[in-house]
């Protein structure tokens, strides 16, 4: 290849700068498309030039002036397959990374005439070869709502891209696991889940990055190749792959987590810290719970638990999706409790299964609140922990947060020191401890939940303030709380009860 003099401002460094500027170099606003041969052939001019290299199509128009071989060299492959040309003269060029921002999509596979019975086999093969599925298997919802996915690769990575078509996506909505060469991704969109479930064709490293472009709803899963060889296909679709189904119609997915610490909170309650696998990306949203699964006397037993922050003093921070992500659980051990007493026997280094998060609470319920009242009994305090951290750090409209905390004795009050410290630290926060079995020395409130206790403490900061009351505790406590609050004039929308 003859080198041609480049215009000023058209050096390799200038090209790299342009690719990093965030400009839309393909004209497709980040969308990847499936390109037919006919479509490719249309883009054969200097001001509109697409080239196919090893099955991937690039819009090289913006690169023309930066190409050391000049326009003429690139135009030899305009609107056509340039793989051979690149192999002959540009073998040393890492075009995958140079032209990454110019990627238009993947060549469509040519239809092959087949006997009727092999058509479905081909369509499955097309899916896994091409990775570009025009439509997901949609169960019970509208087609336009359903996400789709695609994948592309560079020398050292494979990126799976999911187009959710949803604004306001965030990383809490993406749950990802990679285990025994299976990649399982779940993208939560309201009451639905979009599922990726693939046996990957080649090995990847454990550290998987997840990027969410919140405004456009694009989710990128970046897998690092173990052996830097080109992949012919992403992998083999497994059960429910590329389907979009109601979350309630799906079974729970569990991954194995390692117990890394266990600390005393009170005489019968412990803070368990579980380490998520490095290849798991998973954050439990405020107000949601997970299920723990373990074998007890030869039988699988499952119970719900609500992850907490490691302390009340931390500013609200989602756990990182990178290595070292931990789950903290505050669990009361009942001596005769089937599950909790077995949990207490776990040793540091032992494993336990943890499910995906569930729960009906949504952050938007507190976004514009003025008063937040928390009504907790015993371990019913657990969902209040992340909620407290979240609202005190993020909800600017908030005037007051009041916690009424019911326990049997003083020794049962969870994180009492931390709560008292928080009262001193944050003027908006107040807490009242109410004991049902107090000692003679207790000079605080006593008794069980009642209408008079509630109306005394839960006073709005101003008339008609925007309020939410969250309740959690033993079922009869929650039911009584709901009833008393309704009698006191609070409406259904102003009450949220945490239940399974
Ligand atoms: P079980 O075998 O179910 O009970 C056996 C015996 O234990 C009972 O007969 C009784 O003697 C004793 N016991 C059990 N529960 C009680 C009780 N409430 N009051 C008095 N005695 C009792 N628990 C936590 O510790 N932390 C959490 O974060 C948490 N989150 C939860 C989230 C949800 C959505 C729900 C529904 C429950 C949550 N729980 C939590 C409760 C937890 O799921 C179990 O019910 C609890 O650990 C008891 O299970 P177990 O198998 O040990 O006891
Ligand atoms: P506990 O037995 O120590 O009781 C704590 C206080 O709750 C008591 O002092 C009393 O004031 C009140 N209480 C207990 N039973 C009552 C009743 N029948 N009627 C009215 N008030 C009553 O509590 P615990 O052992 O810590 O149990 C906590 C409960 O919270 C468990 O049942 C657990 O399943 C539930 N929980 C639910 C969630 C959730 O998200 N749904 C989360 C955590 C805990």
What share of residues is helical?
10-25%
The distinct bound ligands, ions and cofactors come out as: flavin-adenine dinucleotide, nicotinamide-adenine-dinucleotide
* CATH T-level topology of the largest domain: Rossmann fold
- Quaternary structure annotation: single chain
Number of helices: 11
The structure class reads: alpha/beta
* Principal-axes shape call: elongated
User: Cα distance, first to last residue?
Assistant: 68 Å
Name of the CATH homologous superfamily of the largest domain: Nucleotide-binding domain of ferredoxin-NADP reductase (FNR) module
Total E-strand runs: 29
Supply the number of structural domains: 4
Descriptive notes:
With 500 residues, the chain is α/β, with parallel strands linked by helices. The chain has 4 domains: 96 residues, Flavocytochrome B2, Chain A, domain 1, CATH 3.10.120.10; 120 residues, Immunoglobulin-like; 102 residues, Translation factors (Elongation Factor Tu (Ef-tu), domain 3), CATH 2.40.30.10; 135 residues, Nucleotide-binding domain of ferredoxin-NADP reductase (FNR) module (Rossmann fold, 3-Layer(aba) Sandwich). Helices cover 19% and strands 32% of the residues. A 7-stranded antiparallel beta sheet has the order 20-19-23-17-18-22-21. Strands 1, 2, 3, 4, 5 and 6 form a 6-stranded mixed beta sheet that branches. The longest helix is centred in the last third of the chain and has 13 residues. The protein starts with 11 loop residues before the first helix and ends with a strand. The structure holds flavin-adenine dinucleotide and nicotinamide-adenine-dinucleotide. The site of flavin-adenine dinucleotide (FAD) has 19 residues, from strand 20, strand 22 and helix 7.
